[in-house]
Write a structure and sequence with these properties.
transmembrane, Beta-Lactamase, Alpha-Beta Plaits, 5 domains, DNA-binding transcription factor activity, 15 strands, 31 helices, alpha+beta
Amino acid sequence: MFRMKFKFLLQNKQTRLILLLTVFVPVCITSIGLYSYSQYRSGLDTELNAPNVELLQINLDVTNRAFREADNEAVDISYDPGVLSYIFGQASGREPSVQELRSYLHSRLKEPDIHSVHLVRFRDRTVISTRFEGKPAWADASDSHWSGWIQEIRDKPLLIKRRVYGNGGETGESNPKRLTGQTEVLSLVRPVVRGGEVGGAVIVNLDYDSLFSKTYTHLSDYQFVFNLDGELIYPKLNLPFTSEEMRGVIADLDVRPFDYVKVRGQDYMANQAFSDVTGWRLVSLVPLEELLKSVTLTRNVLLLFSLVSAGIGCAAMYYYNYAAFRPLKRINALLQAGQESPGRGSLYELEHVLVRWVGDFRIKSLVAEQSLPELRSKLIGEVLSRAIGSREMQAKWGSYFQDWTAAPLAMLIISIDRYQQFAAEYREEDRMLLKYAMDNIVREKLEPFWRCVTMPADHEDMAVLLQPKEEALEACSYKDAAGQLIQAIREYLHLSVSIGIGGEVSHLPEINRSYAEAKEALSYRLYDGYGQARDYRECSIRKDGIPSTLHEGWKTEMFETLQTSGEEQSIQLMRRWMRDICGGRIHPENVYKFVDQLMVEMLNMAEARGLPVPNELDDYTWQKLTTMELAEAEALLCLLAGTLTRELESRKQTKEFILARRMIGFMEQNYQANIGLQEIADHVNMGISSVSSIFKTETGSTIYDYLTSLRMDKACELLQDTSLKVADIAFRVGYQNENSFIRAFRKNKSMTPGKYRETNKFSGEYADPANTRKFGIFEDS
């Protein structure tokens, strides 16, 4: 009986259709769910991997910079004549005292991450440190764990070790605890070598907690640092995984930049990077459970839906078998329930229903995953940043801009005027809402005559790509459209904006030129004022720089006026400069750069001396300056100059001021000699610590930095104006060793003395002008 019924059912077209749909629909839905899941995972790789790689690189840069700075200090110490004399002894002359060496080592503690510096001598196994007095033997020193590394120090030019400062035992995976009062450090060791002989070592100890407190982490991921031997360097507490689990992760990663790993049954994305300075391996683990939670739920729902569909198909087949001999009209009436006319009635009509379901699902999935306005905006941003190739650009243009024509394109830049005032009046959430509303107004106003794409440019700017529709070629110009936007934004949002209009271009890759022209036109807001639209083709574009009468010596004149003149004279100086600029109609970009230099120099001067600045300049930035017109920039300069002048006047009669002036005079008269902190302190009959503190407070600089900068400036004059040898110049500015002079010059001027002389020989002026010493009220005027 069953075989007969089964054979009968298979001969029926409707039953075969149900069987086919019972197989096809679940397979189709399952395939769509799995495909969507795989696409999401693929997109997750791209979106999640990039920021984690960037974060690892940032942390690498943080640690590398700290170790480079510490290594530079170690190298400078190892080449110091006094240190070499102590390590190897001298045939003539005296060996520096322990106190002199400790003072010198203390003077090198300029970096905040450096905990201490040890100077080790192999000859008599003694050590001098910034952390304890005297010159004890290694075994008697309060910190001597490094003594076990002596053979490694002799064999390696650079050694980095993690340990505990003191005699409480070293830390690591085998011993993560330390005694109370001890400090965990990372020791960087440089051997002191002369003539191929290793006579001692310089040990620079970096504070472990201070160094790693500067690293950045996401709240949801974990970061680890391992050394070349696979030992865990960071973190040291609250480890989320065991050592064996992390070794398994490293083994799975090998040398790949990223991979998926499993730890304790959980999926993680592992990224890693290697330091070229320390050889360390940085590893980050990002849990994927929460990130994949929603898409996994969607996938499971689709799978469940496919099972339900299969169940429905099986139920339909069962029902058909049950009602096989009922009239076909009743079956069609059940399938067409709710319709006025059941029509001819056929199970084949079910195909149209399924096609509509699947089609609607695919369309909704694509709409959910891809938003056309966002894709267009992203493409324009990639073109402007030159982050996309021509072939990919053309492919995306054809895909995203199918309704655009071959008509010319142009860029507009809409900039909020007085952005500093705008940012102060509104909270960040309100600013975002206002910019969103402004974007909607721009789209609505341009829609009748223009095709447009909007995207954010800077904090205060919005960039718009325009293409005229056929009806706009004669009805509305670019400037008319920009004027309507300015009026609408002022009316609805009560915001003042200025608009720059770039020239027309024929192809998408050329919009960079139109964008640059729009920025150029917008910059003339400096002279023309707020709330205007400026077309690049109508602007009188000038490339004039700051006049030489103003550019040469402006910094000296400014500092001299602030320090020696009254408030009124300082304000008059700023106004005179602004009048000269306005009268010459100088290119706005050059004016903004000059005003920014003025502002930054005065702010640096205030910061170095601890002077207060007006509230209007608490959050000064270059972007906020470029949204001002000339009168507002002038008012801001006058406000700052007047404030600084009043503060300086109140400080000039203090005893500390006079004392600091005596120190500077002594240095300017004796910079050729081998003077240091002790000689300067003797000159003013005070202690070293008191002299250093007073000088730092009054000038904003250390004595060492000021003296070095003074010597470098004198060296620049000799290099430019004389033909003396570098060795002779080094001796004349107080350096007994030519190599030490060259290193100091390169660090201060970013080039060698020979390169500096060669550059000035051909150019007639500084290619890299000497930095003015920002040391409080005693500027070189």
